[in-house]
Request: fold
Amino acid sequence: MNSVRNIVVLTGAGISAESGIATFRGPGGLWEGHRVEDVCTPEALAHDPALVHRFYDLRRAALATVEPNAAHHALARLDREWRGELLIVTQNVDDLHERAGTRRLLHMHGALQSALCAACGERRHWIDALPVGSRCDACGAAALRPDIVFFGEMPYRMERIETALAQADLFVSIGTSGAVYPAAGFVQLADACGADTLELNLERSTGSDSFAETRLGRAGELVPAWVEAVLGAA
Ligand code: OAD
Reply:
């Protein structure tokens, strides 16, 4: 642990599960009662924008009913106290990492509290419902959409993330099933570049064999214990 300086952490839906936000791949393969391709693709947005906007409006509104849990708070503590390089990459679109106080954070799949102009690419902080046809302040087009990376779209900040992974001494994956690329491939990239790799998850993920170590359990217990150990060894 003494030789660790650069850490990259990847989080997924499992880290927010104990806050009361449903994970994606639950029983029946449904996501809050919807097939994922009905609400999370560019085609869905084109064919039924009202359904897609309503789905994300409800999820945005639900943020007011949840709080960061011990795992989010532990990563925020790591961010405050870790003197080396740190990048926390989340696949989650909730704002629980920010509300816990994490700053060195990237939302690779977008954010519920952001609206994106499909015409000019401008972003706006957005906390209320987002009606279809909402106008962009920057270009005037009636083209604001949820700022969510849909299936088939390129996740955000990949260059920055890949650079951090290539320089990492330690890559830690928390609460993700390893079902969605490119995030599912981060462990191989980090490993190929010489990083140690650790998985913290309720159950073995799809790519579990690629990690040097896997610890199984709830994020609310595993993450604070891991952060305590990392900071203690620094
Ligand atoms: P998944 O729902 O696929 O996986 C969640 C993982 O968290 C599973 O492996 C669970 O076992 C684990 N888990 C559940 N509760 C936990 C707990 N209390 N502590 C620790 N682990 C727990 O969610 P993701 O892997 O995040 O993409 O899904 C990846 C992407 O698929 C999402 O970002 C989303 C979705 O389609 C987009 O929206 C673009």
Observations:
- The radius of gyration is 18 Å.
- The chain has nine helices and nine strands.
- The CA atoms of residues 91 and 183 lie 8 Å apart.
- Residues 219-233 form the longest helix (15 residues).
